Recover the amino acids of this structure.
């Protein structure tokens, strides 16, 4: 499994499928923020990160231009990641509460962190076409992460991507990951995103959680007890599926 995940990682990092995202991630890596002017940015697509035997997958929206696009690891180097990894540590899913660099020694336990879109998008807003172009990478990822049974969706965009991912895995609707994904089958009526929402279909249970963006955490829309409750529920569901 680890060897196959390494192959997937290399394939993801080499992807240049979406011209707009390629241009933006590379521009952001050249035009660095003053605080990071002396650093070398990653500036490429982001592979997932975590425990290959994970039962809980945390699905975000996309890398931040000066966060993960800089550090080379999902949710690392920005305030969203600070909030997320601290919560994962409290839930027993990480061995420390901070994530500062891809070589800082952080280890996840029973968890894998990834995103619906693997490249930093302008204004943090990927298009539906870019979401669907990334879907085959997520299909390959979950096919390799055979123990995953719970997907924690950080925000409505990730929720929608997870529904499409679940449909693609259930129907075999995505073929060669070198091609953009066709529209995957979606349940009707479509389950609506909400914080704490649950949707079970086949192998996976989807859990909704507000995204740990500063817009949500600074305003109190998402608090530590709220994300703690979602991650605790994810662990309960994973244990239940195992049983």
């Amino acid at each position: 499994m680890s060897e196959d995940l390494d192959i997937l990682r290399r394939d993801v990092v080499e992807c240049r499928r979406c011209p707009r995202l390629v241009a933006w991630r590379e521009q952001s890596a050249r035009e660095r923020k003053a605080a990071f002017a002396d650093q070398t940015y990653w500036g490429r697509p982001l592979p997932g990160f975590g425990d290959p035997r994970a039962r809980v997958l945390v699905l975000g929206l996309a890398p931040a231009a000066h966060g993960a696009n800089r550090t080379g690891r999902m949710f690392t180097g920005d305030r969203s990641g600070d909030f997320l990894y601290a919560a994962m540590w409290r839930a027993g899913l990480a061995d420390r509460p901070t994530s500062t660099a891809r070589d800082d020694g952080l280890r996840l336990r029973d968890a894998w962190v990834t995103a619906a879109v693997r490249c930093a998008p302008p204004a943090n807003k990927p298009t539906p076409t870019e979401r669907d172009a990334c879907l085959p990478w997520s299909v390959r990822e979950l096919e390799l992460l055979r123990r995953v049974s719970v997907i924690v969706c950080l925000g409505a965009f990730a929720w929608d991507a997870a529904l499409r991912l679940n449909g693609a895995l259930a129907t075999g609707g995505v073929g060669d990951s070198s091609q953009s994904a066709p529209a995957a089958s979606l349940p009707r009526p479509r389950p609506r995103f909400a914080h704490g929402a649950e949707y079970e279909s086949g192998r996976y249970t989807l859990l909704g959680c507000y995204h740990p963006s500063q817009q949500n955490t600074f305003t109190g829309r998402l608090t530590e007890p709220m994300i703690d409750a979602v991650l605790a529920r994810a662990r309960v569901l994973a244990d239940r599926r195992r049983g």
Summary: Residues 2-242 form a domain with the Uracil-DNA Glycosylase, subunit E fold (CATH 3.40.470.10). The radius of gyration is 17 Å.
